[in-house]
Structure formats: C-alpha cells, structure tokens
Amino acid sequence: MPVVNLKDGDVFEMLLTPVKKKINGRWVRMLSYNKAIPGPVLRVSQGSEVVLRLRNRGDTETSLHAHGLRLENAFDGVPGVTQKAQRIGETREYRLRFPDPGVYWYHPHVRVDYALASGLYGTIVVTPSDADYWPRVNREMVMMLSDIALDPLGDRIPFFKGIVDHALMGRFGNVLLLNGEPSPRFSVQRGETVRLYLTNAANARVFNLAIPGARMKLIGTGMGRYAQESWIDSVVLAPGERRIVDVLFERSGNHVLQHRTHDEIHPLGIVSVGGRVADRSLAQTFTALRGKGEVGNPMALKAILGKPPDKVLKLTMAMDPKLMRASDGSHAEGHRMADGMAMHHPKAVGPDKPDDGIEWEDAMPSMNRASTSETVVWKLVDGATGEEGMAIRTWQFVRGDLVKIRLVNESTAMHPMYHPIHFHGQRFRVLAMNGVSNENDVWQDTVLVPRGATVDILLEASNPGSWVAHCHIAEHGQSGMMLPFQVKPHR
Question: What's residue 279's pLDDT?
Fold first, then answer.
C-alpha cells in the first residue's frame, strides 16, 4: 500500500477508478483509490487539517466518509443527510480535521455493500501531538482485514441493481484478504517490537486475529489509548472497528497471522522474522503495561452506571419468507449467481464452544443470497416512541451533553444477529455489557453488540451537526438499520 504523509493545509488528489486485481490466480474487476487496494495510507498529525480532492471515475455514484473522525459535519459524506451523492465524472473536495490520535479509515457511504466488496477503503493514521502518548516501537504496520465472495470460477458473486442482496446476514466472502491480498508476507527483525494498526473493512465478517509465537499487547482502539494496556492472545474486530496492538517478535522464523473461530483457523498472512537481532531492542519497554488513568472521571462514570438510560435503542428485524427471491440471477448484473459457494458452516454450540453471540460464518448461504432489502428489514427502534430508523425524530442533543444510551439486541427477532453500531462524528465510552461494568475505559465510535446482548454506552455530544448512527454490517445499514440524530451548538 502506498503511504502518503500529509501536512497541515495539504491538498491530496484521489482518483476512484475501476481496476483488475489478481486474486488466487484469477483477474477480478474491482474499484480503487489511486489504483491501489486498499487505497493510500494517509499519515497526518493530530490537530492538522487537510483536503482530499476526490474525482469519481468509477461505475457508480459515491461519497467519501472518514470513519471515526470528529470532522466538520458538511464533509461527513452521507448522501441525504450532509450532501448529495457524488456523480460519476464529478470532482468534490472533502475537508478533514484530526482532533484525536489513533487509526481511522475512509470509504464511500453510497451502496456501501458494493463499494467495500469492490476494494474502496483505506487507512488514516493520526500521529499524536504528545510524543509519549504511545509506547516506543521499532516499526509500524497498517493492516486492513477484509474478504471477497467469489464463485467457483473465480468471478465475483454479482450484486443486484437498485436493491441490496445478502440482506439477511450480510455478504460473507469465501476468500479472506489482508491488505487486499489472500496471503501477504511481511518481514521484521528478531527482537523488534511492531505496532499494528488494524481495521476491519469487511462487509459482515468478524475477525479474531492471533499471531502464535509472538507476544501481543492491546494498547488502543481507533480513537485512542486504553486506560490500561493488557496482554492478549488474540483481538476481535467487528466490521468498522479498529484496534492498535504492539507485538514483540522474539523468535526467528515464519509467524502465521491467523483468523481464529470456534471451529477453524484461517491463515491470513505470514510475518517472516529474520535471524539477525534488531539493532535496537525495545523489549524492556514492551514488557511494561502502561496505565494512564481513566478517560473520564471514574466517580462520575460510576454514578452514571446506576442511572436509567436517556435513550433505549432496540436492534431487531422483520422478514417475510413468502417474498424471498430465488437466487436465479434475475436481478443480478454480470455473471449468474453460483448455486454453491465454498463457505464453512459453523458447528452447533456445545460445552466446549460457548455461544458468544457472533456468527463467524454464513450459516445459511442459500437463504442469505436470496434475501434482499425488499424482503428483509433490519430495524433500529426507539424504545420510548417506537419510531424506526430514519423516521426517528427525537434524538436531539446539545453540544456538551453526555447521553446514556442502552443498545438492546433482541434475541426474539426472527433471525437475531450481532450488530456493530457506529455513531458518526462523535465518540463514546462503553459503560457496561449485560450489566457488567467496563473496567478499562477507552474512546470508541463503533461497538460490537452480540446477539441477545445489552450494551450501555455514554455518548459525548461534542460535534454539532446532523449525523447518523447505523449497523456497520453494510447490508444491514442499507436495509433499514440507520437513524438520524442531531447535535445543536447551544440551547
């Protein structure tokens, strides 16, 4: 991936065009930013502001959404809320500001299912103004996790025109990708400490990343550091989520990057560790678990925990089986639908496989393939008014408000499923899950709500404008799982 260092005030030209990419020996038509999949890594400094000038030379309307940034509302890239869609042939400028350190990413907010599966995503790394904000490392690596759905001939499973397909569970790919490749290789020296900036850019898949033989330390989410660093064996990322992990490679040889589920281990790539010892060892720094205290006032947070929520949001769905389309390709463009995909079905939950509320694979590919946004409606329902989705009109806040929101993922829905819920333009803290308080505070913009779970968050309404919150399973967000909310500058 190309890396671009941008200074305050810079203007960066971005070109969206079709490309052909070789995956597992077959050429696949995809879309790209500046001929790269993923798009260029943008490195900027905290507190800076840049302009991205995007030319759309693709095959569909688009926009540019900088996921997680607390940017100016007019440049959030949500057609129908902050702007009109960017037409084919149109050039548009997006002014981005970077108030918070961390790792963010950019992607379209038009037909997100098609855009992400086509390769339109890229990373933004925001360097903190405080040089001691992160521990010292020998090197940094950006890693974007994704997948792609190919038929037995190596062609992409086509998309429906005008409606979203795979609406039930989302489009799970059968080829896993790391930085756009099925099995990339990375090289480091023995004894090096490496910082991984991890982003899940998949439509629907939850990843669980492990690196056997290396020590891993979780230090941050996409929006900043945890109150307390911690040792981990693996890290879970739902669609839209980011994590920052430091890894110490003490042994030479090949270390396999793995995606681990209850049933299987999927290789993602290889880190080749050379035999020569690194010139500068930071192992002693790595072994210290730093704690910087709470993100907020701990006593105030404990008081909020005992209060009822200001808002309750129910996560549910409706489906009419009689309207389910047969996957005969009648609404598909390009090649006909494949009857069978090489999917791995999860085994039944047993004593050795606790139910974590996550579908790690597509358990019903035929039904999922046949479901569309016309037959499946995913819902965000306001607990007080019963209003649904974009019809919700009561989420009105004022800058400075701290809003306790309870996310209830109903297990009684026809097909309950996990949902990564993303709030645009703001940040929040996770207070509790299923009544158990969170002991390691951190800022977030996306949270995974497992099937049947209840998650309490505290939203900091800090950025005025008209925004949306939605499920970041691409097909769910476009099948009704999105709501508007407004933050006013003053009362």
Answer: 79
